[in-house]
Amino acid sequence: MKKYLSFFRLRFLMNLQYRTAAWAGIATQFVWGGLEIAVFGAFYKTQPEQFPMTFQATVNYIWLQQAFLALFAAWILENEIFESIRDGNIAYEMCRPLHIYPMLFARGLAVRVSRAVLRCFPVLLFAVVLPGPYGVSAPESAEALCLFFITMILGALVTVAFGTLIYVSAFFTISAQGLRLMVTCVMDFFNGAIIPLPFFPDKVRAVMELLPFAAMQNVPLRVYSGDLAGREALRAATLQIFWLFVLAGAGQLLMKRAEQKVRIQGG
Q1: CA pair distance 150, 219, nearest whole angstrom
Q2: Which of 98, 237, 223, 108 is nearest to 168 (CA)?
Q3: Predicted confidence band at 158 (pLDDT cuts at 50, 70, 90)?
Q4: How far is C-alpha 174 from the chain's CA centre?
Q5: What is the C-alpha radius of gyration for the chain, rounded to an integer number of angstroms?
């Protein structure tokens, strides 16, 4: 365990150095969040009673999505890992006395957490001081806040587990570029990054909420917004745990298969 914690620590500290990139991302998230709220606000002014979430809940969802974008964004995957698999440098890692899957998992988690730490506080501070209903409001209860933190941790772990599965899948391809593009599009659509899942038709949403993508950012953001509460929130958290074990188990099984017959493409 200490070896993988060291990988996490080193990668975490390394990513904390990119402060200029973080400030550029923060500025982008301010603008993007404001644009999203303006668009939704225009729709809410027509027939607000027709929408599945209140405008304040939607605003909370958007600002929290921007604040913790680095934890859940589909496109945050390390090019260095894909390059090491493609050019054969991953062979050096496989010669070390460690397992590749938990090492990749630790690195993926460290990258997301470090980027989120750099970006979340300015976005949250900005969103809190905005006048209502355009700023973030407090959660309905202390229990909702605690459940938000729990589901956010689980959602981040599910996201990392899925990302690690993509890394492992790269062992079976010459180039992972097409796989990355496809996964990014699918994740952004099904995890609520483009449109919150409650805005989909009921029958479509019922299916989408059973998929692993809904166990990512969809659950914690809706818990904080008050759209998920009670038994529905507990059911969603249970699905998060289920998909975490399924994705992590599938990744480890696929990694064992990859280790049995490795083809070094770069040398």
Answers
A1: 10
A2: 108
A3: very high
A4: 26
A5: 19
What per-residue confidence (pLDDT) applies to 209?
93
Q: What is the distance of C-alpha 186 from the center of its chain?
A: 13
Q: Is 240 helix (H, G, I), strand (E, B) or coil?
A: helix
What's the token pair of residue 244?
């975490």
What DSSP character marks residue 73? -
**What does the alpha-carbon distance between residue 265 and residue 184 come to, in Å, rounded to a whole number?**
25
**pTM, full prediction:** 0.90
Write down the mean pLDDT value for the chain: 87
- Domain ranges, ordered by start, for the chain: 2-260
Report residue 188: phi and psi, to 5°. Answer: -60, -35
Pair 43, 51: CB distance under 8 Å: yes
pLDDT tens digits, 124-136? 999 999 887 899 9
Read off the amino acid at residue 203. K
Contact 204, 176 (CB under 8 A): no
Here the tokens at position 247 are 């994705």
